[in-house]
Amino acid sequence: MEISLRRVAQMLGEAEKLVITGHIHPDGDSLGSMLALYAPLAAQGKQVTLLLDDELPAVYRFLPGAELIRRPAGPVAADLLVVLDASDADRIAGVDAAVRATVLNIDHHISNTKFADFWYIDSQAAATGEIVLELLHLMKIPVTADMATNLYTAIATDCGFFRYANATATTLRHAADLMDSGAQPHIIAEQLETKPLDSIMTLRSVLDSLEIHAGGRIAAVTVEFENGGDSAADTTEGYINYPRNIEGVEIAIMFKPEGDGATRVSFRSRRCDVSRLALAFGGGGHARAAGCTVASGLAAAKKEVLRAAERLLAESGL
Ligand SMILES: [Mn+2]
Questions:
Q1: Was domain 5-192 assigned CATH 3.90.1640.10?
Q2: Spacing, Cα 132 to ligand 1 middle (Å)
Q3: Is the pTM of this model over 0.85?
Q4: Class of domain 197-315
């Protein structure tokens, strides 16, 4: 059932035992939103658990409270499971089965499948972090410097540090508001931009994989890691910006073989709605940024996805 943000605040106020989670392949928005909502609820004496069925990328370990996030291990009973920034039950993986609770979903993805018992979706918000900030204001919860750091990271990372089309005047006001509460953008940016040498070496091989299709309107890169190790998750997000930024490219694609024979695919676009592409392969996202996992190996996935991308270009008149 769709509910108002005021009703969300009420439900959070009434719950005593809560689990907060976000989507797998965690990003700054899902993690920052989880941590910013966790702190004040825990401070009110509620029993709050942060669960995530994935590894925490090293680049986000600086977020205040990040060390409290656990992987689900066995069943958990709670009053409320709060699902942040995830548009589908599949996106929270094992947490869905582990937690017995009423499910409350707070999200900003236009592709949200309305899987929860209760949901609040604002597809105008650049990040779930924007919704969480409004929620905290509504609950009259003072925003601490740590909460501000988490929410600034959530918002900034989801709108390319205020450069993407989803960044609105409200987004910038929220960011200013968070600076007033103690967020330090230059320190957060430095944390996110500093990379280990091996990630730059990987960038070199990623750029080497660049392919151009459809007369220059589609550009794709492939990210292959020798051991699919932890550092992989840290840095892959940014690689797709290289094909995305090439003059004349309408659709940028990043392919990443997963350990289990499937292929993770990310999309970025200038004008067409790539969430349609992602949806066609069981994924989701936004018009200009979306992703999916294709249940086939790299070569087959590439063929299928490139064909679908060319079709989308034709349908979009591009
Ligand atoms: Mn988000």
A1: yes
A2: 11
A3: no
A4: alpha beta
